[in-house]
Every structure is written in structure tokens, then in C-alpha cells.
Specification:
single chain; 504 residues; Aspartate Aminotransferase, domain 2; 2 domains; 7-stranded mixed beta sheet; 4-stranded mixed beta sheet; 17 strands; 15% strand
């Protein structure tokens, strides 16, 4: 076993990992990367098929992001945001506000449009900020006797700090911590593939396309809002949601129109909208229906696809293009003003982080936004979305593929025991984990969510590389479920760089 792998086994505790299993085999130790490729300590190359847990947008070792980071490093790495401002944080805040504007803002009063940015460190902390702001705003506007309560979706995951965990409704992840948490309510998510109201028999297509229902999932939201009004005497403080697709729930996409209609119900009830775009932001959900926009004005956020303007917007992951931990919570003038007052009133928002508005992160994020607005990036995202749409149908030939769900540049492939009945694999069988291990042996890295294989590569990946990922997934499934022998991983000497066709 390599020395670094031995040190990992001796000292490192990995997240969301059963360490007893981890310690039984040599881990893949990554030492470098370029474009969509990662390279391990033995010189083996892998396609990064989940963008290093959904963070990397433009590829590893990107010259533009590298240069922005180095330029800032020559000035200063960090200074406190408590009592001080800084250059890149100020510029980035203005750019984020500009990027989140949409035509939906025209129907909202100016005080209810996103215009203020609170920086933090990661997706969980972005949600913590939104929760605290919504909680205190509700108490200050409805009165101190108000008891703010939050509504989320079944299967929700919004992070691992305690406030974010309280919003979550995945028992495997969250049940242990229930004694520590405040109570939140969950409402039916539009999981078309497993919806009890979907009367359609399984087909070899995305379940959203052949579903037979009467939008009962939206009726469920309306009933929940009415129950809250009757029992509690006040509306929910806020509805917290991932727009267009729920990530850790299993890449569960929402049918077109669901988000807009649900947002209208929540608005009418008096609740705030908290959009968790930690995973969906920065172009991940592709382009909305209709004529393609100009590259510089292409929407970067999922809410913009359905003309939903949230009261709080949480960003992280792709904010720095996959380079540094940085998060942002955007909110409105109305919410911001509720925290203004004389010093002695103590209406200050008492929350913060040591590395809030870190200069290195903000400078890299500024370059990331600039890249996203270029024609080259826009065309790369178009190519990737199209390549996925053209290549994924080959997976329907596998009897263990029950549903293929694509939203822009995000894909979830649900594995089942029998596609004709939708019978799932028991999680103890580790079907998704076994398939991903077989994928790694073929030079493709991703991480499953239970029985769902996630494909979310960097935008710089080529159609040929997309085909390689899908072909490798087919072979990995055949190996895992018993038809083809294992394939040895191709090695590349670390002394020889990737050929020019694999580099920008």
C-alpha cells in the first residue's frame, strides 16, 4: 500500500463513509488534475464524473482561475469582514446580485428583490444564515408571540449543521440528531418515478414524460398550508426547497411548472421562499425552454427557469468553480431593513464566520462568474447538455436501470432490481456503491446516492468523454450484476502528460 494511503488509514476520518469498510482496501489517493481528469498516486487517470462532489465547473487546474487566485494571493490572502470591507468581496457581491436578476423581479416591489449578500463558508452555513434571517424577520414582522415554523420537501437535504439538519427529512442521515433539533414539516415531493398518484406503468423513459396524474403533489402542498393556518394560526415562516431537482434525495427532478405553481401557493399564504441553489446554481440546470439566450445573459440559477424570485437564495459549491470553500446568502432589502436600528436596540444580525468574505475565495469566484458569461463556456454547457441527452438512452438496455433523470447538466440513474415493477435494491446490498467501484476500475469516478448513480461532470468535458463515461457505466453494471468479467484499469505513466486532445 502506498505511503499516503497508509497515512490516510492511520489518521483520516472520511465524511459519509463507513470507516470499517474503508480500512479494508487501499483508497484512491488523488495527487493532481487537469480539465476533467484526476490522477492518483500510481499515475492512473480518471474522468471526474461528479465534478468532485458537484463543485468543479470549468475543470481542474484551470488557467484563468489559477491566475485569479495567484493575483489575489500577491495582494492579501485574508482579512476579517468583522469591521472591515475588502475589494473582491465588494465586487463579487455586486456581480452576484446582477447574476440573480430575472424577469420575475418585475412583478415584485423593489424592496422584495435580492440585493444584499451575506458571505459564509459552505452550503450548510449558507442555509444556517437563511434560517436565522427568516426566523428573526418573521418574529419582528409578525410580533414576538409568533412561533416561526419551516416547511421543506420529503427527502430534503440542506446540509449537516444542526439548523440545516433540522430542515432535512432523510431518516438515514438525520434521525440520529432529532433530539438536538427544532421541528420542521415536510410535504410531498414530486418524485414522479415513485409517486403513489402516478398511474402509469413503467416505461423506458424519464418518468416525468409518461406520468399519469392530476398534480396531486401540488394539492398536497395546498392542504399542508391550510392545515398550518388552522392549527397554528399563522402561515409558515418559510418554504425551503431545491429548485428543479433535489440533490441528495436521489436526484429527484420536478416536472415543468411544479416550482412556479408551488411558489405561488406559498407566496399567497404569506411564507418566505428560501431557495437552496448550493447544487443547482451556476449553470448546472442548463438552459430553460424557449429560444436560446445570448451567452452573457444566459440564466445561471434554477429559479430563473420558472420565473421564481426567492426571498433568500443560498449559494456555495460551484461559487468558486470548485477551488475554495465559499458560500453566500442573498436576501432582500425588506429583510435587511428589519435588522436596522440604533446600536442600543441590539437588532444586529449576530452571526458570522472567521473566514467570511475571504479574499482568495471571492477573487476566484469573480473569475468564475466572468468565465460563465463567455461564449466559450456557454457553448460548452450547450454541448454537454446535448451530449448527455444523446448518450444516456443507451442505458435503457440495462434491466437494472429503472429511471434516467436529466435536468440540464445533472443526471441521476436509478438502479432497481426489476424495472418492470420498480422494485428497489435493499440499501444493504450496496448496488450503487458496487457499480461505482466497477466504474473506478474503468477510469471513471463518481459517488452514488443510495441506488442512484450521479453523473455531473465539469463543463469542459467533451462529447467523446461523455460517451466514455456512459459506456463504462454500462460495462460496470454488467460486471456488477453478473454478465461480463472485470476490466483492468488502463495505466498511464506519471512521467507522460495527457495528450493535447485532453487539455484545453
Amino acid at each position: 500500500m502506498n505511503r499516503l494511503a497508509r497515512l490516510d488509514h492511520l489518521y483520516v476520518w472520511h465524511p459519509f463513509t463507513q470507516m470499517r469498510d474503508w480500512l479494508r482496501q487501499e483508497p484512491i489517493v488523488i495527487v493532481s488534475g487537469r480539465g476533467p481528469y484526476l490522477r492518483d498516486v500510481h499515475g492512473r487517470e480518471y474522468l471526474d464524473a461528479n465534478a468532485s462532489i458537484w463543485t468543479n465547473l470549468h475543470g481542474h487546474n484551470h488557467p484563468g482561475l489559477n491566475a485569479a487566485l495567484i493575483r489575489q494571493l500577491r495582494k492579501i490572502a485574508h482579512s476579517s469582514a468583522l469591521g472591515l470591507a475588502n475589494e473582491p468581496a465588494s465586487l463579487l457581491a455586486a456581480e452576484l446580485v446582477r447574476a440573480t436578476r430575472s424577469s420575475a423581479d418585475r412583478t415584485r416591489p423593489p424592496t422584495q428583490r435580492l440585493c444584499k449578500v451575506f458571505y459564509s463558508d459552505d452550503g450548510s452555513t449558507a442555509l444556517e444564515v437563511a434560517l436565522k434571517l427568516a426566523f428573526e424577520f418573521t418574529r419582528r414582522t409578525r410580533g414576538p408571540r409568533s412561533k416561526p415554523r419551516f416547511l421543506t420537501l420529503q427527502g430534503a437535504y440542506h446540509g449537516d449543521t444542526l439548523g440545516a439538519v433540522a430542515l432535512g427529512h432523510i431518516p438515514l442521515f438525520h434521525q440520529t440528531w432529532r433530539p438536538l433539533l427544532f421541528k420542521t414539516d415536510a410535504v410531498m415531493a414530486p418524485y414522479c418515478y415513485r409517486c403513489p398518484f402516478n398511474r402509469a406503468h413503467p416505461e423506458r423513459a424519464d418518468a416525468r414524460l409518461y406520468r399519469q396524474c392530476q398534480w396531486e403533489c401540488i394539492d398536497a402542498v395546498a392542504r399542508r398550508l391550510e392545515t398550518q393556518r388552522r392549527r397554528r394560526g399563522e402561515p409558515y415562516a418559510a418554504f425551503v426547497f431545491e429548485p428543479l431537482i433535489q440533490g441528495a434525495a436521489g436526484m429527484i427532478p420536478q416536472p415543468q411548472g411544479w416550482l412556479r405553481r408551488v411558489a405561488e401557493l406559498l407566496r399567497a399564504s404569506g411564507a418566505l421562499l428560501i431557495a437552496d441553489e448550493v447544487m443547482t446554481g451556476f449553470g448546472r440546470t442548463g438552459l430553460p425552454p424557449g429560444p436560446p439566450p445570448r451567452p452573457a445573459s444566459a440564466p445561471l440559477f434554477a429559479c430563473q427557469h420558472e420565473q421564481v424570485s426567492p426571498d433568500l437564495l443560498c449559494l456555495a459549491k460551484g461559487l468558486t468553480g470548485g477551488y475554495l470553500p465559499l458560500a453566500a446568502t442573498l436576501t432582500t432589502r425588506e429583510i435587511f431593513d428589519a435588522f436596522l436600528g440604533r446600536y442600543e436596540e441590539f437588532k444586529t444580525f449576530f452571526h458570522g464566520h472567521s473566514y467570511t468574505a475571504n479574499q482568495l475565495g471571492c477573487a476566484t469566484a469573480l473569475e468564475n462568474l466572468r468565465l460563465l458569461r463567455t461564449r466559450a463556456s456557454f457553448q460548452a454547457r450547450q454541448r454537454l447538455e446535448q451530449a448527455l441527452a444523446e448518450t444516456l438512452p443507451a442505458l435503457w438496455d440495462l434491466p437494472q436501470v429503472g429511471d434516467i433523470r436529466q435536468v440540464g447538466l445533472v443526471v441521476g440513474i436509478e438502479l432497481v432490481r426489476d424495472w418492470t415493477t420498480r422494485e428497489p435494491f435493499d440499501l444493504r446490498e450496496q448496488a450503487g456503491i458496487r457499480v461505482c467501484r466497477a466504474l473506478a476500475r474503468r477510469g471513471v469516478l463518481t459517488r452514488p446516492i443510495g441506488n442512484v448513480i450521479v453523473l455531473m461532470p465539469p463543463y469542459c468535458i467533451t462529447p467523446r468523454q461523455v460517451r466514455q463515461i456512459v459506456e463504462s457505466l454500462i460495462l460496470a453494471c454488467e460486471e456488477t450484476f453478473g454478465t461480463h468479467p472485470p476490466v483492468r484499469h488502463r495505466r498511464r505513466s506519471s512521467k507522460h502528460p495527457a495528450p493535447p486532445s485532453r487539455q484545453r
